[in-house]
Amino acid sequence: MKNICLVLILCALFFGCKEQPVNLDPVPKHDNFTIVSKEVNETRVINVWTPKGYNKDNSTYPVLYMPDGGIKEDFPHIANTLSKLIDSKSIPPIILVGIENTDRRKDLSGFSKIKADEDYCPLTDGAKNFRAFITKELFSEINKRYRTTPKKGIVGESLAGLFVVETLLLEPNAFDFYIAMDPSLWWNDMYLVKNATSYLQPVSDKDIKFWFAGSNAVDISTATNKLAEVLKSNAHQYLAWEYSDEPNEAHNTIFRATKEKAFKWIMN
Question: Computed from CA positions of residues 139, 140, 143, 144, in that sequence, does the dihedral angle turn out positive or negative?
Fold first, then answer.
């Protein structure tokens, strides 16, 4: 019984597997639509926030994509944060696209050979299909519906942060900038960290920016600190990166504590 409780506690801490509480952030005005995906074989709910002035001219805007982007997830507080930073001219205007979860554990985790990881998420590389949904289906749908520039980024925390880092390493040209708060890089015996050097090869001369942060969660901070060391020695000339070590922040506080400085650094 104690082991079961421990698994549930760890699952909630690192992956947010439990139902999330009703979001207390005010829900900003936004668009909402569904997309039938062949890549993940289900219908997905998409929430889109556009900055003030979007409907007043014909300007085009970069796009920030966000897993965990449901109304009862992280969409409201990130949209409100972007609005605040744009109003203060701390960052340029940007469109936010939130992807509502169905089964985040399946969508956001890659393959793992570690049997114990199955206590938290499937080991079947659902992230591969979810990434294909975003790049092959969602990109084109957003570009069709909204006035966008080619520039796009992705932000995620915890398991979504793992997905962000995996995308950076496996398909770096998918986005122009990447933000990962407390990514669950311990997944699959820290495979991404241990193999980052082999992935950190420029596939083009495209400039990419990467910002990530680690809290005081030991398993995560160990991995994020090691990733920072790898980047110091192996980041190529087209990859600009910044690591924010946050030992005074917990896993459940780091997103709100670091989001503003992450957006300011990545978007300027």
Answer: negative
